[in-house]
Amino acid sequence: xxxxxxxxxxxxxxxxxxxxxxxxxxxxxxxxxxxxxxxxxxxxxxxxxxxxxxxxxxxxxxxxxxxxxxxxxxxxxxxxxxxxxxxxxxxxxxxxxxxxxxxxxxxxxxxxxxxxxxxxxxxxxxxxxxxxxxxxxxxxxxxxxxxxxxxxxxxxxxxxxxxxxxxxxxxxxxxxxxxxxxxxxxxxxxxxxxxxxxxxxxxxxxxxxxxxxxxxxxxxxxxxxxxxxxxxxxxxxxxxxxxxxxxxxxxxxxxxxxxxxxxxxxxxxxxxxxxxxxxxxxxxxxxxxxxxxxxxxxxxxxxxxxxxxxxxxxxxxxxxxxxxxxxxxxxxxxxxxxxxxxxxxxxxxxxxxxxxxxxxxxxxxxxxxxxxxxxxxxxxxxxxxxxxxxxxxxxxxxxxxxxxxxxxxxxxxxxxxxxxxxxxxxxxxxxxxxxxxxxxxxxxxxxxxxxxxxxxxxxxxxxxxxxxxxxxxxxxxxxxxxxxxxxxxxxxxxxxxxxxxxxxxxxxxxxxxxxxxxxxxxxxxxxxxxxxxxx
Length: 535
Hints:
- By secondary structure, this protein is mostly beta strands.
- It contains 1 helix and 41 strands.
- The chain has a 5-stranded antiparallel beta sheet, with helices on one face. A 4-stranded antiparallel beta sheet has the order 13-14-15-16, with no helix packed on it.
- The radius of gyration is 24 Å and the shape is globular.
């Protein structure tokens, strides 16, 4: 409920607005009680404008959630302003229900000049579907599911209910099995199956077997509906569609969050009593954001890595910065950054190179908000650097700039974030060990920083101080994931094919690849993948 005293040219107006919501339809119940007829027309029009701005922002938020149907996305929540009329909106909070089927957005709109503020709780609901079959007269999609195909969770306003059709009723191209997401050590295909590959010296392949023999793309059936995978050289996590996190690999610091430490976990084991939307790990420290946007930390913390000020280690999740709600977190192990619901960056840990972005090189053991002049929608950690993308798609970086790792055209360290490749619109960034990768709005995969052993995939071994196209022919990319403790990078192109970068010709798993080892290498389809065909 809002009570706002308004003053117009023809007297005073007192308006009380009672707000309700009709969930997925986007229709709102609003009762207005007018106690003075002065300036009614003008203020009523403004109320309509604010209401429309609220609905538009909620729709845009839902669309942003759907921008990566295969996993968690981080929509912008900060204040956004239009010029005609001069109205600003922001997402105050986003609460996901326990079943994961609906989200309550608290959206606020304000008139820049007039001072009227309107707040509504908007409920958006999830639709499970695998295809759009048609658009109705109003442009709303009609969703269908097909037997044998993995459905995605689609947020927002959908016309009617999902329609069930048989596979024979579908016409057109059939893509076969493709990669949905992948890291240097694990991936998920379009059928929802989990794959592991590469080194297994610390059980980090997750096959259940303690062996030092590298794994060559093994498909595992022990878990289904996995949506997010991350991995370092010796530790990995999976997130399934319910928010359950599974860890495996090295657990000597308790970094798997299982309530114990000092062991190796050879098969994925669930973190109990928590549901997460994002997770990250490096250097024996791990962090995650739960479905209520609370930040949790565990693992090695004796140097202040966990951000709670205690300088202690934990083998189970402990809450950090309890009064703040977060949407994303990224870590190098020694340093960590978190993005709050207002798009502001918090950081803690080692700050030798100014990577915390605070304007100093002073370390901190407590999560501290950095004085950035912009907000962010996405963040990533390099080994000693920070990377972030703002709401306009501009890329920023801070920290160690040896070998050009920040991509700003210099090799000077930066203790506050600086723009990278001004004018280029970026959609994803992934920081690594003295280098970084990013995808721009045209699908180009770009790399910069240390290029030894062909780790940038640019076709040579030289360092790059500015974003440089990866040598991958005409391929366009939709995701990239590198590591802060290794020289291998995984990228998925828009056709769902997996590429390896910086592996000196061996790929992401043991195989024989041809071509320039300093260029990106397209990995072969593993046994069990079905090839593309036309129905």
